[in-house]
Design a protein that fits this description.
6-stranded parallel beta sheet; 25% strand; 454 residues; 32% helix; Alpha-Beta Plaits; alpha/beta
Length: 454
């Protein structure tokens, strides 16, 4: 595909690197030559220096024949991204998407307005991150999760701790133990992330300390599985948020109507005054240094069920979560934008991390695949992707039972939603047209997987 990325900031640069590895032709536009120079040193892309709202600059980037334009210019009014995307569409780009800062643009009525104007997708990384945090506070036993077909099938990621009841147990032994107690539980272990490797497990694969195991199950079976894993969901009724960033504000606003106690802390006094005016009265806004453990004690951190760190400093977020954990907070979540720090955060005991670049990338990557993919999500702890497909009539995946198809070895079909029913896929499963199919795939297999569903 020929893809134009407008903006070589953090999100744009990450997208450029990721998409260039997928055999796409990438052109990046930015007004800041220094950002373009940094990007060229680490990614195989063509760059265009100039104003992304200039027709001549868009033409120079090849907008007349591009398959996709992604407008993610950093630190500019959102109108810049919208205008550049709309101009590209008029020039001939097949599909365009733009980053916005105002979540109100994303409500259903406003989406239709922009759709009529020619924008295929609007997205707000901060709103996506907020939704991710809310979900992580809802599913506290797992480090990451994804719902298929509104939760009829659930994919969850669980970390194996040193006291885990399944430590050193083989996959086959775990399956047998679950079935012996509750034969109705349908599930499948689809992957294990170990160190820097993602393993598609066999029956004799053993669970090791610090493994992240990826399990797909019918919704009603997840509670039984958590019991066997020694995991329990906690009810979060109070949350302390460190960082009055846009993400912190959105999380506080959304939680205010769901739980009884929300406190947000920021070191910038003027930002605190702004937050106190914008957030509901039920949210407590405190000006102070959340990196100071004595200050956190004064703010009663020990009485909170959850702690969310979303400052603009990765190290501060990780360390604050470690401190919160030592004070007894059961659920700690950190925003970590440096991908190299993700594993460090996990090793230091942070329960879950969010990364705007990764969660945004999934939304954009969907546009590089066929129209049969409904959703894409990059799962934490691995470079693999969870995808939801709709099987097209006559597609390769519908021709024979799964065991007779030449499905990519680095991908696995976890489950199927057919009408109102859902079930875990096995070798004899025969995918039918219009089935919604949950797939887990490593990067080198995604394009091949896509061909099976067209």
């Amino acid at each position: 595909m020929r893809i134009i990325i407008v903006g070589a900031g953090e999100v744009g640069s990450h997208l450029a690197k990721m998409l260039s590895h997928e055999s796409n032709d990438i052109t990046v536009i930015d007004e800041d030559q220094a950002r373009l120079t940094r990007l060229v040193s680490s990614a195989d892309v063509v760059t265009v220096h100039g104003d992304p709202t200039s027709i001549s600059v868009l033409e120079q980037a090849g907008a007349e024949t591009a398959d996709l334009l992604v407008a993610v210019s950093p630190h500019v009014p959102q109108s810049v991204n919208i205008v550049s995307a709309l101009l590209a569409k008029k020039l001939g780009t097949a599909r365009v998407t733009a980053r916005v800062d105002d979540p109100d643009y994303l409500n259903s009525e406003n989406r239709l307005i922009f759709k009529d104007m020619g924008l295929d997708l609007l997205f707000c990384p901060e709103k996506i991150a907020c939704d991710e945090i809310i979900d992580l506070l809802r599913h506290t036993a797992s480090t990451d999760s994804m719902d298929f077909a509104r939760g009829k099938l659930q994919l969850a990621v669980f970390k194996i701790d040193e006291d885990s009841p399944i430590l050193d147990m083989k996959v086959a032994e775990f399956v047998k133990s679950v079935s012996a107690v509750n034969s109705e539980v349908q599930f499948r272990i689809i992957a294990i992330a170990r160190h820097d490797e993602t393993i598609i497990p066999k029956f004799d694969t053993k669970f090791k300390y610090m493994d992240h195991i990826y399990i797909i199950s019918k919704r009603e079976g997840m509670a039984s599985l958590m019991h066997f894993l020694g995991k329990d969901n906690i009810e979060v009724d109070s949350t302390m948020i460190l960082g009055g960033s846009r993400i912190g504000e959105l999380v506080a606003e959304q939680l205010s109507g769901q739980i009884s106690n929300v406190k947000i802390i920021d070191s910038d006094r003027s930002r605190c005054l702004e937050l106190s005016e914008r957030l509901p009265e039920s949210v407590t806004v405190v000006n102070g240094d959340g990196r100071n453990s004595d200050f956190l004690v004064e703010e009663s951190i020990k009485n909170f069920d959850a702690f969310v760190a979303v400052t603009d400093n990765d190290e501060a977020n990780i360390l604050a979560c470690v401190v919160a954990k030592k004070f007894g907070v059961e659920r700690v979540i950190a925003e970590v934008e440096n991908i190299e720090y993700l594993k460090l955060a996990d090793e230091m005991g942070v329960d879950a991390v969010i990364n705007k670049k990764l969660i945004t990338a999934g939304r954009i990557f969907k546009f590089t695949l066929s129209d049969k993919v409904r959703f894409v999500k990059y799962m934490s702890g691995t470079d693999a992707e969870a995808l939801e497909y709709t099987a097209a009539p006559g597609s390769r995946i519908t021709k024979a039972p799964l065991k007779e198809t030449d499905f990519p070895k680095n991908a696995i079909i976890g489950g199927v939603i057919r009408g109102g029913d859902s079930f875990i896929a096995v070798g004899d499963t025969h995918i039918e047209p219009y089935d919604r199919v949950a797939v887990f795939a490593l990067p080198d297999a995604v394009k091949e997987v896509d061909k099976f569903f067209r």
